Amino acid sequence: MSESCCSAEAENASCELPSGTANRPAQSEGKCPECGQTGKPVQGQTVKALLSVSLRQVSEGRYRFCRTQNCPVVYFSADGGQIFTVEHVREVVYQKQPDGADTPICYCFQHKVGDLRALSLEGQREVVADINAGIQADQCACDLRNPQGACCLGNVRALLKELERPASARMG
Ligand SMILES: [Zn+2]
Questions:
Q1: Nearest to 163 by CA among 110, 132, 121
Q2: Cα–Cα distance between 20 and 134 in angstroms, integer?
Q3: What does the pLDDT look like over 19-51, one tens digit per residue?
Q4: For a tag on the chain, would you pick the N or C end, based on fewer CB atoms within 10 A?
Q5: In angstroms, what is the span from residue 164 Cα to ligand 1's centroid?
Q6: What is the pLDDT of residues 130-161, one digit of tens each?
Q7: CB contact at 8 A, 159 and 116
Q8: Which protein residues have their CB within 5 A of the ion that is ligand 1?
Q9: Residue in 73, 47, 50, 68 with CA at minimum distance from that of residue 58
Q10: Ligand 1 centre and the CA of 143: distance in Å?
């Protein structure tokens, strides 16, 4: 259903960097140099689309996305030698500021965290339906819009689930 949008390997990767660079064993590789958590691989086009700095700085090779909330690093090279932080990214990154009312949660169809929080259950369902409809109409561009380089629906569902719980259960 949502495969075309959410699958990591898009067919339109013609502008991708050659992947022949590295097949080194992944030991500490893949861990964020700042927080030590394992980053999720992102496509080169995602990094290029989201950076606000000159792309001359983008090196060949693979980048990963750090989703640790209190870590400023957004992208880092697989070998850990290069990092791009929230300052270098043109969007507010949901994983870094998940509680900000103005933080986008769906970057393709422009839904914000605050909007979702303010909506009734019915309204929230409509947002999910809107996102799903957009995905099915092939109108999304998660790899170019969403800093995580993948579909937002998992984040949306997780947030809505969290909102269902009483506030007291949400702490910690
Ligand atoms: Zn990190």
A1: 121
A2: 35
A3: 444 444 444 779 999 999 999 999 999 999 999
A4: C
A5: 29
A6: 999 999 999 999 999 999 999 999 999 999 99
A7: yes
A8: 32, 34-35, 66, 68, 71, 73
A9: 47
A10: 20
Token pair of 9, please? Answer: 């390997």
For residue 18, is pLDDT > 60?
no
- Alpha carbon of 67 to ligand 1 centroid (Å): 7
Task: Give the pLDDT score at 102.
Answer: 97
Q: What is the mean pLDDT of residues 79-84?
A: 91
Per-domain boundaries in the chain: 29-90, 104-165
- Residue 86 tokens, joined: 């929230």
Class of domain 29-90: mainly beta
**DSSP assignment string, the chain:** --HHHH-S--TTGGGPPPTTS-----SSTTB-TTT-PBPEEE-HHHHHHHB-S-GGGPPSS-EEE---TT--EEEEETTSS-EEEGGGBSS--TTT-TT-TT-EEETTTTEEHHHHHHS-HHHHHHHHHHHHHHHHTT---HHHHSTTSS-SHHHHHHHHHHHHS-HHHH--
